[in-house]
């Protein structure tokens, strides 16, 4: 079954489905580019690893203090230590522990030199929320923007805070940023809404190289079908995060027309 939405499918933004979709879409982008870029370039699937504490984590950390021996009754009398009543009961609580997070991204590398020509990022929810995930990505982003590497930044998430773009107040549900190293600080921004098709863009390479066209819309539709996401989505429910009033009315009519509501 094909995705019922002409552009981005908002149901794929659900935290339960996003990690799987993220893995599928970066793999699909790599599969699209590999035959077009060889033999001069190869596409490497990389991962960023960092530690973060999530409010939903329920694990115990390593104690700072180790108790060497138990106190005897003589110790208690000597130091006048109060002894708790044997009837006292503790309260069960949860304490957070750092969680290891792994985020995938793509690098287009020049064969022979191994130099990274393009970094391709598909943002995750943790990148767009305050905390270690955003700090880790922003650090990587600044390193790329200060180098000779082109940056492709794909934001398919309505939730969270968009990445910083100076002097730009454009409001959009989604966006694709193409930052060519030779044009910085200027960059190409493709903003689009839920009701629009996802724009295509050219992948920047070395000067005089033929730049492949990336049709992200076709890739997302292909991923939706191959991964069987229609079997995992209940379109009678509202998407997470929820839609604005105008988009909710539009989506309801669209889903009704296709018999999904």
Strand and helix layout:
Blueprint: H1 18-37, E1 41-52, H2 73-78, E2 99-110, E3 116-122, H3 125-128, H4 132-145, E4 150-155, E5 174-179, E6 188-192, E7 201-202, E8 213-214, H5 216-227, H6 245-257
Helix pairs in contact: 1-5
Written description of the protein model:
This protein has 261 residues and is α+β, with helices and mostly antiparallel strands. It contains six helices and eight strands. The strands form two sheets. The chain has a six-stranded mixed sheet, sandwiched between helices. A two-stranded antiparallel ribbon has the order 7-8. Helix 1 packs across helix 5. The chain is globular, with a radius of gyration of 25 Å. About 7% of the residues have low confidence.
Offer a few descriptive terms.
6 helices; two-stranded antiparallel ribbon; six-stranded mixed beta sheet; alpha+beta; 261 residues; 8 strands
């Amino acid at each position: 079954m094909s995705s019922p939405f002409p552009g981005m499918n908002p149901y794929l933004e659900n935290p339960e489905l996003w990690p799987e979709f993220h893995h599928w879409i970066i793999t699909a982008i790599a599969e699209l580019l590999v035959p077009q870029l060889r033999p001069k370039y190869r596409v490497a699937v990389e991962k960023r690893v960092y530690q973060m504490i999530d409010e939903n984590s329920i694990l115990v950390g390593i104690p700072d203090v180790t108790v060497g021996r138990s106190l005897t009754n003589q110790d208690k009398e000597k130091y006048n230590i109060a002894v708790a009543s044997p009837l006292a009961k503790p309260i069960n609580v949860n304490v957070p522990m750092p969680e290891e997070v792994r985020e995938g991204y793509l690098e287009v590398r020049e064969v022979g030199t191994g130099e990274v020509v393009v970094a391709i990022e598909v943002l995750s929810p943790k990148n767009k929320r305050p905390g270690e995930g955003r700090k880790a990505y922003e650090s990587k982003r600044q390193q790329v923007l200060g180098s000779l590497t082109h940056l492709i930044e794909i934001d398919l998430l309505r939730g969270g805070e968009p990445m910083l773009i100076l002097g730009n107040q454009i409001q959009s549900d989604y966006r694709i940023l193409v930052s060519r190293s030779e044009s910085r600080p200027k960059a190409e921004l493709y903003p689009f809404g839920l009701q629009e098709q996802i724009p295509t863009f050219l992948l920047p390479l070395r000067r005089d190289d033929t730049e492949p066209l990336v049709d992200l819309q076709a890739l997302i539709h292909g991923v939706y079908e191959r991964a069987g996401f229609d079997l995992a989505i209940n379109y009678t429910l509202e998407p997470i995060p929820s839609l604005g009033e105008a988009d909710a009315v539009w989506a309801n009519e669209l889903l009704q027309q296709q018999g999904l509501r």
